[in-house]
């Protein structure tokens, strides 16, 4: 199964329009507020920290570059070529490598696993932006990349995030500037029930090793100056047998 062309074009359009300025994208908060806290939860569960790490759905690579400072080999993978153009421009020293990947396409994840071997995988907010029919295929792809020794860290918006997003979108002047392009390009976050993510992982042959809740920082601020944070759930998964 591969993602639809409409979905792919939505992401291409979004990233072609996006500014290269730090913090211009709604979810592109600085690593100290995002991947940094996530790593503190992920690292204790890594069976082998020396494995290559794949930042799946890396976008413009802000979190990828942070990961590349902390792991020996990091690959940022994304569906969108325009996103990867941003990532490469922001990483002139080549701290990480970048690859276009449709992780819902079995042959593509199998080929990457054949190249890299087992990997650790970081995935932030990708499942809830997928087409519903692609979600299990995406998690199956994660399981392929993880193999026997890798671990996956997933962060997804929880059900409690929807009223926060809808409240932002329905303000008197419409969605705030950084959220508006998300809706305009047709990639508004979908709804993934909180209990569905562990089921996707189990169906892919992975065991949930740890889970919890954590606010997900954005780059948008409310009129009172407070940063918009979205309720999220995180999980660590891997094979244990």
TrEMBL record:
Keywords on record: Methyltransferase, Transferase
One Pfam assignment: Methyltransf_25
SUPFAM superfamilies, per the entry: S-adenosyl-L-methionine-dependent methyltransferases
A GO biological-process term: methylation
GO MF: methyltransferase activity
Residue span(s) of domain Methyltransferase: 54-147
Classification via InterPro entries: Methyltransf_25, SAM-dependent_MTases_sf
Protein name: Methyltransferase domain-containing protein
